UniProtKB/TrEMBL annotation:
It comes from Panicum miliaceum. Residues 235-327 form the DUF1618 domain. This is DUF1618 domain-containing protein. It comes from the Eukaryota. InterPro entries: DUF1618 (IPR011676).
Length: 447
């Protein structure tokens, strides 16, 4: 049975489709932002947010001069296979943490045909160059964080979070911290290491020997975005639990809370298992509380939502809904066409955003009612609250100018090489301009 019929997308349901890109004059209160930042071949002084009503995805557009893409000698052997930005997480009050990565390779020129270079790919550098930014998506302000220990070779610092502090409640932040937490496998006993950047100092620091709060001889596998809540950052292992800490503290205390009883599983080892796990369980923030949600893989597809207790010691079941009774023709959901968790609504704990194949849905768990649906097409996004003061506020700094000055760019901004397998095992290329700069297509032997 076609998916459209399974989900009951009749004229009546289609009438409730959420709008795509908003034309409303009302100020948006939150956005679901696509996890990949778009680079624009532009000298604009600010980034921009192309807003769409959730659960549709908004897009963050970064002028390329901010991201400082690699500029390899077009006659040299080094090339960029991939250069792009990922939106890692949100501060909880609108600031975004971005990470741009450069995957470089060695591909010497082996011939020139009619002005087109022919290169042979001989090596790929897996030690990626990383550049990180803090961005205000409404004002468009972008601040580049300094490199950790003076090097861009820091791809292993992957799951970072950003937390803000304000002297006045519900006002723009006065400071922020960016931090990454990892187990110290070289130290004696069980302990953690924190690398943190404080806006007050403008420098990275290293804190070692933080006592481990983990109750078992099991390593935590931080596999989701780092959350900001209640003056702490929360690092998530969706198979086990959450570790939290205050990155502003001189002596950060680490705390651990296990997932609800019956939700703890064996450690996830493979990438495929991690990917599947992320479809059916999620930890996020809504209405100022940490919440955990999971959906069963079999009928009736029970969606369960839990809230962390006030003392942070356990979870309370808030909602349990049989989705096969919520979706029109839900009895026909099966195989790959089963409900998966997209995101928690950050402003309403009863609203869950789900996906089924190419459709995105909003469900009111209090009423057991399907609110809206739309074509998904782009995956799931990162919830980002947009406070009323965000568009007019500045990113806190240590007193330095926080707007980056656009530097003069060459006509050829950068080169990206697309590798396309053909039946002749050659990778074919030509040169053409695009909206993202200059893409150089080429062919290479032996790969």
């Amino acid at each position: 049975m076609p998916l459209r019929r399974i989900l009951g997308l009749s004229a009546a349901v289609s009438g409730r489709l959420l709008r795509g890109f908003s034309s409303s004059a009302a100020r948006p209160t939150w956005a679901m932002i696509h996890p990949l930042a778009r680079l624009a071949d532009s000298r604009a002084p600010r980034a921009s947010l192309r807003f769409a009503e959730p659960p549709c995805l908004s897009h963050l557009v970064i002028p390329a001069h901010f991201a400082d893409p690699p500029r390899h000698d077009p006659r040299g052997d080094d090339v960029s296979l991939l250069y792009g930005g990922v939106i890692k997480t949100s501060s909880g009050d609108g600031l975004l943490l971005l990470a741009f990565m450069d995957v470089s390779a060695t591909a010497p020129i082996v011939a020139t045909r009619g002005g087109t270079q022919v290169r042979k790919l001989t090596a790929i550098d897996l030690d990626l160059d990383m550049t990180r930014f803090v961005c205000n998506p409404l004002s468009g302000q972008v601040f580049r964080l300094p490199d950790i220990d003076g090097t861009k070779k820091t791809s292993w610092y992957s799951e970072m979070g950003i937390l803000t502090q304000s002297e006045r409640p519900d006002r723009p932040p006065d400071r922020y911290a960016v931090a990454v937490l990892s187990e110290d496998r070289d130290g004696e006993g069980r302990s953690f290491v924190m690398r943190r950047f404080l806006s007050q100092t403008g420098e990275w620091e290293k804190l070692v020997g933080l006592p481990s709060p983990l109750p078992l001889a099991r390593r935590i596998n931080i596999d989701l975005e780092v959350l900001a809540l209640a003056g702490r950052l929360w690092w998530v292992d969706a198979s086990w639990g959450v570790v939290s800490s205050d990155p502003f503290s001189d002596q950060p205390d680490l705390r651990f809370v296990e997932l609800p009883r019956g939700s703890v599983t064996e450690p996830v080892e493979s990438w495929e298992d991690w990917r599947v796990q992320g479809r059916y369980r999620h930890i996020g923030v809504s209405e100022g509380r940490l919440r955990y949600a999971e959906v069963s893989k079999e009928k009736p597809f029970l969606l369960s939502s839990f809230a962390l207790d006030d003392d942070g010691s356990g979870w309370r079941l808030e909602h349990r809904v049989a989705l096969s009774r919520v979706f029109p023709h839900g009895d026909y959901l099966s195989g790959d066409d089963t409900p998966q968790i997209g995101a928690l609504d950050p402003l309403s704990a009863s609203i869950m955003h789900l996906t089924v194949a190419e459709q995105a849905f909003s469900v009111d768990m209090d009423r057991g009612k399907l609110l809206s649906c739309s074509l998904r097409g782009e995956g799931t996004g990162l919830p980002c609250v947009l406070p009323p003061w965000l568009g007019s506020s500045r990113i806190p700094s240590a007193g330095n100018e926080i707007f980056q000055v656009p530097r003069q760019m060459a006509k050829r901004l950068y080169q990206t090489y697309w590798f396309v397998w053909t039946e002749t095992r050659r990778i074919e290329v030509s040169t053409k301009p695009t909206g993202m700069g200059i893409l150089t297509n080429w062919e290479a032997d032996g790969w």
